[in-house]
Design brief:
single chain, Thiol Ester Dehydrase, Chain A
Length: about 190
């Protein structure tokens, strides 16, 4: 599995760490006590920064008749649906999925038509974070790697009433030259 940028987390009071498959908290920190400090001592100091790698996700789609527009090529709305889904998969991997919502798609310019029977690949990773925002970079290509479209999607971490709230991710450290370029670009699309 490929890894993209690295995320910086800090342990805080009132922080929850979730089991993403079940959606249940596996660690819930209500108060930082001496006992808690000792139990985390083997992993990290309370308040100390902890780095975690972000995964790159890949999803393939076969273009079928129901995915076509009136010209017989891939309907842009269907591609946008898959584009957001790919970005959400990356964002939800580092935040609680039930509290992650799409705010904005930042452009999609197609470079060529896609036809029925073609297979396309969506590659996504979180490339930038703010206080409550997560920006995913999504790249779409043919199964052979020919570039089709790319762009950014901003997601927001929200509470149960739908108001934005901090997600607890402090920083993303780009690892590759492409990640560094996209990290810089993502800061300006937010």
């Amino acid at each position: 599995m490929a890894y993209g940028p690295v995320v910086l987390l800090t342990i805080y009071q009132d922080m929850k760490v979730f089991d993403y498959l079940e959606g249940n908290p596996i660690i819930e920190i209500k108060k930082i006590s001496e006992e808690l400090k000792l139990s985390f001592k083997l992993v990290l100091e309370i308040g100390e920064e902890c780095w975690m790698k972000i995964k790159e996700f890949t999803v393939y789609r076969l273009i079928k008749s129901e995915d076509l527009n009136h010209h017989g090529t891939l309907f842009a709305g269907r591609c946008a649906e898959w584009f957001v889904e790919a970005g959400f998969i990356a964002a939800a991997d580092i935040s609680f999925p039930n509290n992650t919502v799409c705010l904005k798609i930042h452009g999609m310019t197609f470079t060529k038509a896609v036809h029925r029977g073609d297979t396309i690949k969506f590659t996504s990773k979180v490339i930038w974070v703010g206080r409550s925002r997560l920006v995913s970079y999504v790249k779409v290509s043919t199964k052979d790697g020919e570039f089709l479209v790319d762009g950014f999607i901003t997601f927001v971490h929200v509470d149960n009433e739908g108001h934005s709230e901090p997600h607890g991710i402090s920083q993303i450290e780009p690892q590759t030259e492409e990640d560094k370029k996209n990290h810089e670009l993502a800061q300006h699309v937010v």
